Amino acid sequence: MQFQLITSLGNPDRPDNIDQILDSDIIILDIIMPWPSSIERKETRSGQTSGMEVYREIRSRNVNIPILVYSATQDHNLIDILRSNPSTRFTSKWSTPSMSQLITEIYSLLGVDQPLPSKPVPFIVHGQNDKIKLSLKNYLQNTLKLPEPIILHEQPNLGLTIIEKFEEYAEKSCLVFVLLTPDDKGSEADDAKETKRRARQNVIFEMGYFIGLLGRKSGRVLLLHEGPIELPSDLSGIIYIDIKNGIESAGEEIRKEIQHVI
What we know:
- The chain is an alpha/beta fold.
- 31% of the residues lie in helices and 16% in strands.
- β1, α1 (18-22) and β2 (26-29) form a beta-alpha-beta unit.
- It is elongated, with a radius of gyration of 27 Å.
- It starts with a strand and ends with a helix.
């Protein structure tokens, strides 16, 4: 499927790439676009209608090509003109549609069924607690019906080093569950008597890797906490999902957190 997104133009009366534009399956067009300084500006009530010149040029050549006009214009005369053509759909930027809503509009204009979105493959970062690891895998796969989660040691090595293998499989996932379980003991260098429970070093490393890769605010890196456990001070204030009573007890909170990405 070929798209053309038009948000600026050279000559609004006769765009140089009009033939290329007309080869597309659908056109996404803005209305309020800057006028080139070399072109005499044509003003209407709205004062900024260069996109309409492109629209009129397209329609003079092809009245049926689907056009999604995505614009902040509030000129009702222009909007009425756009909506008078059945192959044109106007969506206001002021309505702040989501990306999925815009995609639905595009498929509707094209008159084809929208494919169902594929579900993300989960990646489970874990320490030594095999019971809770397998419980989480079972919950994600059999209750939430997600694809089989990636657990690194279950994957073939393919002649890779450990870090190469991790990077290879990390790229296959955009939804990560970090199991922070109290597997190790540690203390300050000058206070050997005071010990604290900590997650395995590989868990902390992989957690940081995914936060950097996917973004802390993406909602795609979920921290599952089984205390008592000492956590890196950089993560102070971040909300964790408490799994001390098991994965099933935290199931609804897990489902709620990943609802927007599946």
